[in-house]
Design a protein that fits this description.
Aldehyde Oxidoreductase, domain 4, 32% helix, alpha+beta, five-stranded mixed beta sheet, Aldehyde Oxidoreductase, domain 3
């Protein structure tokens, strides 16, 4: 198989013949730094490609990773629209590592997150597909000896008069023609699939169990590995005695690696039983011996006594507060949280002849490649990664620590290793959403204008920890780990003293007209490994911001929704979702079971307003219904948008009502869903989603439904009980 006539220009990276079919490499970023590789089953795939087989089948490799958010269906819809092929006809697969897969929103790093897939690929994917359709029409015009203007297309067929011909009939001629670069795209009024509830491409195989996740992958000769890691952050192995463990049924090895001790056995259960019997004496990190109470005290001291780094400043805040008629000051707390995806971390790694092969599900295959290369001290080019479906990501699968662990075990034992983290491993030894203490001060003048706004956040920064995983991806192989660690250390120092990690404070200001404002940050870091969690900083800043808006409205005796409307005049899309939600809220008043709470928040270039109907039964908070109004630009697939809003609301309610990690003696107390619970079916509210469709390019949907739900519920609790809850999870003292 070969890929001929490669082009590095525009959206079409190449065109050729393989197995008798037409293959077109589609660079979703636009231009690729290098030509994509040939289309074979053993080589790297292009950035994103379209294949039309001799049987008129349609396939493409999805450049973004599918973790339940519907990205494969969304991209297939974009391709199908301009190619004029029903998206459900596409066979979708996922790529390994190649520079052409870089995401335009992430400095060219190949990864998936930030609700950026549709926003980043909307026009490039459509243009690429339009070019392919135009190419097919040109080839058909030559083969049929018909003017191109007299031809049309319909669901993978060229129409000439009364005759219909499959695209595949013209691929030989198409291969010899120059590639169009800017074929006309459809006008929105001609859309056939965009804006429709197109069935998800992965629904059938996920419903029947045919979908392959990392945890499903099996390979002949594979052994299972489980690990014990230090229960205390920063701890390391002192001593352990493997002899008795090695004699247990099925156990083939017990090895120490950089992160702890692994037991390798023929089956998962044999490894688990043996690991339970393994006793390890740990060297503990004295600096990590702290508790949640210590952390809260440190945060409070920093909030009260330290001057933060200013990240956003406008106007004269002191004068505004002096001139305001109503002032408030409230502190809000959000705890550490685990991601807890339903599929725990796992990886299969084979190490042989100085090369490695990896099977896993990550939000960025290059993280696995770079981590394994560093762990084994080999070139990244010698690490081949196969990415699978992800059983939930939420930012957790942006890290590849578990893949590096599997590689170390494979190298140490000589076996093909399948490493599986248990739920306890993931909750106690994983990575966490940072804890945050936030002080909100606001002032309202006699005209109902928010004339002063100050927000100060205390907590850790995510970016330095993320650099640990990202730097090996972009750094050349010859750069030693020591240099990378120094860069990370410098970044950590800078963010602790001089500059602010944007994800630490995002969402504290910006939705409202705030002519006089100051946003500050104080870094307090207790050493827990941090990572992005669904909606990142917005997951806690929205709680503080939108609760503060209601506190301000209560203090001034004004309607909280009117306060929001009066102070979003310069933000028309945010103003509109508030307006639409407020109008629907009026009818909810007659339907409500408890009391209604309102919140609105923009994130990832989308705008969301939510109304929660909440009852309080004793000490239990019961969410009866949630209205969600979302403006995410043009709706590619409304059904996917509704599903993402509903899922994000449930994810956010889990955190708002239950999410809490307690630290004692430097270790996480919770361990599994019995003490770190998910929202149960009987707690599931009815959800109504209103999508504001418009002509703006599509924006994020995977994360944007989460931020407003906690403050909407907290505001409803206040309306129901008169008690203002300022700490997450929402509990009565």
């Amino acid at each position: 198989m070969t890929l001929q006539n490669l082009s590095r220009r525009s959206f079409l990276a190449g065109i050729g013949i393989t197995g008798g079919g037409l293959v077109v490499g589609l660079g979703l970023q636009g231009c690729s730094a290098e030509a994509p590789p040939t289309f074979t089953t053993t080589d790297f795939a292009p950035d994103a490609f379209l294949q039309i087989t001799p049987q008129n089948e349609f396939r493409f490799i999805c450049a973004r990773d599918e973790m339940g958010q519907g990205v494969s269906s969304g991209l297939a819809t974009l391709f199908g629209e301009e190619l004029d092929v029903d998206p459900t006809r596409f066979d979708v697969s996922f790529p390994g590592v190649h520079s052409a897969y870089g995401h335009p929103a992430f400095s060219g790093i190949q990864s998936t997150g930030g609700s950026a897939a549709m926003r980043g690929h909307y026009l490039p994917a459509r243009q690429a597909a339009a070019n392919v359709r135009d190419l097919i029409l040109e080839a058909a015009a030559q083969d049929l000896n018909v003017e191109k203007s007299k031809l049309s297309t319909d669901n993978g067929e060229v129409i000439a008069g009364e005759q219909r011909y499959p695209y595949a009939q013209f691929i030989t001629t198409a291969q010899s023609l120059p590639i169009p670069e800017a074929a006309p795209m459809k006008a929105p009024e001609a859309f056939r699939y965009i804006g429709q509830d197109v069935p998800r491409l992965d629904a059938a195989e996920k419903s029947t169990g045919e979908a392959v996740y990392g945890i499903d992958f099996d390979i002949p000769g594979m052994k299972y590995a489980l690990m014990k890691r230090s229960p205390m952050f920063g701890g390391s192995v002192n001593t352990f005695v493997p002899d008795d463990i090695q004699r247990m049924p099925g156990v083939v090895d017990v090895v120490e690696i950089s992160n702890g001790v692994a037991v390798v056995a023929d089956t998962f259960w044999q490894a688990k039983k043996a690991l339970d019997q393994l006793n390890i004496e740990w060297d503990t990190a004295e600096a990590a011996k702290f508790s949640t109470a210590d952390l809260r005290a440190d945060y409070q001291t920093a909030l009260d006594e330290q001057t933060g780094s200013t990240t956003d400043e406008e106007g004269d805040l002191a004068l505004a507060f002096r001139n305001g008629d109503t002032q408030i000051e409230v502190d809000f707390w959000a705890p550490y949280l685990a991601h807890a995806p339903l599929e725990p971390m796992n990886a299969v790694v084979k190490v042989e002849n100085g090369e490695a092969e990896v099977w896993t599900g990550l939000q960025g295959p290059p993280f696995a490649q770079a981590s394994v290369a560093r762990a084994l001290n080999i070139d990244k080019a010698k690490v081949r990664v196969h990415n699978t479906y992800l059983g939930g990501g939420f930012g957790r699968r942006l890290l590849a620590t578990h893949v590096a662990e599997a590689a170390e075990i494979a190298a140490a034992t000589g076996h093909i290793i399948k490493l599986i983290w248990t739920r306890e491993d993931d909750i106690q030894n994983g990575v966490f959403r940072p804890a945050s203490l936030m002080r909100m001060k606001a002032s309202l003048d006699s005209e109902g204008t928010i004339n002063g706004w100050m927000a100060k956040r205390v907590g850790g920064n995510i970016l330095p920890d993320r650099m640990v995983g990202a730097l090996p991806v972009v750094a050349p192989d010859f750069v030693p780990d020591g240099v990378l660690n120094s860069v990370v250390g410098l970044a950590d120092t800078a963010m602790s003293n001089w500059i602010v990690d944007g994800s630490s404070v995002e969402g504290l200001a910006g939705d409202y007209d705030l002519p006089n404002r100051v946003i500050e940050h104080v870094t307090v870091n207790h050493g827990l490994p941090l990572s992005y969690w669904r909606s990142v900083g917005h997951s806690y800043t929205a709680f503080a911001k939108e609760s503060a808006i209601d506190v301000l409205a209560e203090a001034a005796a004004v309607d909280p929704v009117e306060l929001r409307l009066n102070n979003t005049r310069s933000n028309p899309r945010q103003h509109n979702v508030i307006k639409v939600a407020s109008e629907r809220m009026k009818s909810m008043e007659a339907e409500k079971v408890g009391s209604l709470g309102f919140a609105a928040h923009s994130s990832f270039h989308s705008y969301v307003a939510q109304v929660a109907d909440v009852s309080v039964q004793g000490s239990d908070i019961v969410v009866n219904k949630v209205l969600c109004v979302v403006d995410c630009g043009r709706a590619i697939n409304p059904d996917v948008i509704r599903a993402q809003m509903e899922g994000a609301i449930m994810f956010g309610l889990t955190a708002a009502l239950h999410g809490d990690l307690d630290i004692a003696d430097g270790r996480v107390v919770q361990s599994n869903f019995h003490d770190y619970p998910l929202l149960r079916m009987n707690e599931h509210p009815d959800v109504e989603v209103i999508i504001i469709d418009n002509d703006e390019d599509p924006t994020g949907v995977g994360e944007v439904g989460l931020p407003p739900i906690a403050p909407a519920v907290a505001n409803a609790v206040f309306a129901e009980t008169g008690q203002r809850l300022t700490s997450l999870p929402l509990r009565f003292s």
